[in-house]
Known about the structure:
Blueprint: H1 5-27, H2 37-42, E1 79-81, E2 89-91
Antiparallel strand pairs: 1-2
Amino acid sequence: METPRRTFLIRTMGFASGLAMSRFAFADAASVSEADPMAGALGYKANAAKVDKTKYPRYTVGQACGNCALFQGPPNSTSAPCSVFAGKEVAAKGWCSAYSKRA
């Protein structure tokens, strides 16, 4: 049984508009809070200068979310989504123990 052209067009337009609307939903992603349980477990700090170097000896000066491979925005942005925190935005000047230098 073939799908009528009108039904096909209506479904296609519905799918396309839903896809377009989903881009707006992710545009205003929530920011990660240092009080968030996941952030606490990874030692996330919004300002890398405040990282406890005795607790996180892997941290070195110059490491920041902005130059991390998991940072999903351009390096010059002030914040962007991070794949570790389920797409929530992190500060570019921040740091967590999942840091991996961008290639």
